[in-house]
Every structure is written in structure tokens, then in C-alpha cells.
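I hope you will forgive my troubling you with a question about protein structure. You will find the record immediately after this paragraph.
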Amino acid sequence: MQAATTTSGACQGYSQAERFNATRRLSEALVVSLSDADATIQSMPDASPAKWHLAHTTWFFETFLLRDHLPGYARFDERWPFLFNSYYEAEGARHARAARGLLSRPSLDEILDWRRHVDQAMQALLDRPDVSVLVELGIHHEQQHQELLLTDIKHALWCNPLGPAFADAAPFAPTEKDAPDWYEHPGGIARIGHDGAGFAFDNEGPSHRVLLEPFALAGSLVSNRDWAAFIADGGYRTASLWLSDGWAWVNAEGVSAPMYWRDDEAFTLSGWLARDPDAPVTHISYYEADAFASWAGMRLPTEFEWEAIGQSHDASGGQQLDVGASVNPVPSNALFGSTWQWTRSAYLPYPRFRPANGAVGEYNGKFMSGQFVLRGASCATARGHSRSSYRNFFYPHQRWQFTGLRLAKDV
């Protein structure tokens, strides 16, 4: 299989129209190697079919931009909003999430036809200042689904006993300078949250002050080699290392290694490969990250500590998604990229947070319960999508995403 070469186009300096078109092309480049059957399967309730991701992002633009802001626009198919709405209660009833894999129709080709129809209609809105904020939200929303498409198809292919590859791997040669062993911070009052310059999701603000005690953040991600030592030392069998909920989860699920590990191999988007001991460990839950930190005599950083360090780093650096190809985490000295990094911070609203008005206000705020924040970016994050204030979030048991960790300590 040959990797597609469409780039993310997320770099600064491009017009909104150029970034919209490049983002839409990248999504389609990600499915070039997939059959209709590949694009239809759903391997677990947390994941969605690749075809559904392509359709849902198209539904977003058709619903919130074309329907509401382009006079005379007629929906491509009046039946499809029910199929491809995700969780927007204000948009009415929808197909059950866990049953998305049952949608054998419309076909992948029909979804691609719909995308072309919507993309053509969207050109009339891309130079209108009155909808530019909503267009920008749609671009970043689609970039989020590009990462989900990759992690979801990875899980689906892993479930296949043949262990098929998704596509050829995209080469990545780190260019960053050596990182220190620790990034030290003196503590004090820090300004956290989006400062108002450029795009951000609503959950990244308002900007506010926090008090930090002196701390240090590790200069490198925890590696597969480090994790193998944790396993060899009985990490998954030592109750004292684990949170109570984590210990119950380990035993109930029979967890004894990161997801996708098998002997000395790991399943990747390029199929089963020998595990690189120097690559960052990934596909671990919050419970596992916290237990490893306890075993190492360290702790996870708070999201505020991570951001205080991240503000002086290039958010577009490191290994991130540039082309429609297979991506597998590789060693990198950058603070961003390769894997998302668990923090010990619960996903909660910032002081004075208010959801946006209308249906788009359901985007983040209603999920601020029971989840933990991750910072940084991963190898599957479209380059230019993340920033130091970006707040990713998942439930503590989830690990099918590219999730890893970076240790912290008090000083």
C-alpha cells in the first residue's frame, strides 16, 4: 500500500479557504487504502467507522454553515442528519453511537460524493467574515476526527486475526535539539488558558491565574524500555502502586501490559512490528500512567504545570500528522508530539467558563465530568492543531488513543 501525500495545510500563513480545503483533502487521503468494508466496521462502542468520521464532519459543515448561512441551500440527503449527528441534542434524534457500524449504507463512495457536494457549496462562505469563526471551528473539529479515524481504524485492524496494515508509515526524522533531563519551574503565579490570540476551543478559557509550587517536568517521555522494567518488577501485580479504581480495573479486565503489546511486538498502523524500546510508550490508561509514576517515585504533572512549561515550546514541533499515511510514535525530544500526555488534573471548567450559545455550545462543556486532561499532541494530531493551552480529555480507563506520559516531581 502506498501512503497518500496530501498534507495537513495547517501551518500559519495560509488563508482560511486554503486550510479548509487542505483539511478536507487530508481526511480523504487517510481512507485511500480502505475498502468499503474497512470503512464501515466498528470494533467497539468508543470507536466509530472511518466512513462515519468522514460523514459526521461533513454533516457539521452542512448543518451549521450551509443550512444556517447559505440562502437556498438544500441538503444533499434529508435522511442523513439522523445518521451522522453525534451528540447535539439541539439537533434532534440520532442513530445510536454503538450501532454506527451497522450503517452499511450509504456507501463510502456516496459519502465521498456528499463531501464533494458540501465542499463545493462551502466555497461561497469561505471569504465571509460573519461566519469565519464557525468555519474555523469546523476545520479544527475535522482535525480532531482525523486523529480519531486513525486510532479507530487501528483498533479495528488489530481485532482482525490477520493483523493487516493500514498503510505505509510516514517517515519522521527528529530535528529538535537535545532536551534537558528536567524542565524546572520556580513556582509562583502563572497565567493559564488561552490568551485570546488565534483559535481556541471554548474549554481552553477564560485565561486565569493559578498558584504553582516549585516543580520539574521530565525532558523526555516514558519509553517502552522504561515500561518493560515496570512490568518486570511486578508493576501490574502490586496493589500498592494503584488507585483503588485502577486496581479494580486491572483485575476485572486482566490488564498486564499496554494495549497492542504482544511478547516483543506491538500492533501498529503498519501491522505487527518489533517493539522499539526507545520509542515512547503509548496506548496506556490514566490508571496505568498513575501507577507507573508511583513506581518511579514521581507523579503525573497537573495540567497547569504542563502548560506553564509548554508556553515556551513550539506547539507545531515534534512528530505530528503531516500526510495521509500510517503513523507510529517514535523517539522525539520535543515537548509536543508522538503521544498525548496524561496529567493528574480532572477535566473541569475554568473559572468564569460559559458554554457558547446554541447547539455548538454542546461541543465541550457538557463532558466536564469524570474525565482527565491530557496535554501536548500525538503522532496522529494534525500539525498546527494543538497549542500549549489545548485540553484533550478521556475517561481514566480509555487507552485506544495515542496516550503516554511524562513524569513530574516536586522540587
